[in-house]
Amino acid sequence: MHWFSQIIKLIRNVMIGFGMGAIATAVYLFIALRLQLPMLSTGLMLKELLGSMAFGAYCGTISLIFEWGMQKVRKDNVVSFLFWRTALNFLLMITGFWIAGKWLGWFETDLSTLFWLLGSFLFVYILIWLFSYLYQKKLAKQLNEGLKKL
């Protein structure tokens, strides 16, 4: 039944990714309306919505990298495990972002844009990683304090 729980997690992450992609598109539309930017055609907006949702699902799926195989990691090897999983996650995320961005026309491909894109992506990735790390550290502290009370 272990495979069944993995499939449930995959479906959950894909659905969360769909939702995040849809929310990102809705935020863009709201900003575009408020700033009175030229509106895109319905066909192009549908492509953007579906592309954003697909990229969100991809991100949700890629996040499972941290869960798969974690049960088999020795206690003294956790830092190495998480480092390599984070590096792999980053490479897959930037590759997926590049492919989605090229397909959906989110950015140009000149050299300055590529550097700006990589820098921005790295900054956001590090921010998300830092907040996740601090949250997990706080959670571990609370669990340890709860165990001491037992």
TrEMBL record:
InterPro entries for the chain: DUF3021 (IPR021560)
Superkingdom of the source species: Bacteria
TM spans (from-to): 12-37, 49-70, 82-101, 113-135
Keywords: Membrane, Transmembrane, Transmembrane helix
Pfam families reported for this sequence: DUF3021 (PF11457)
Protein name: DUF3021 domain-containing protein
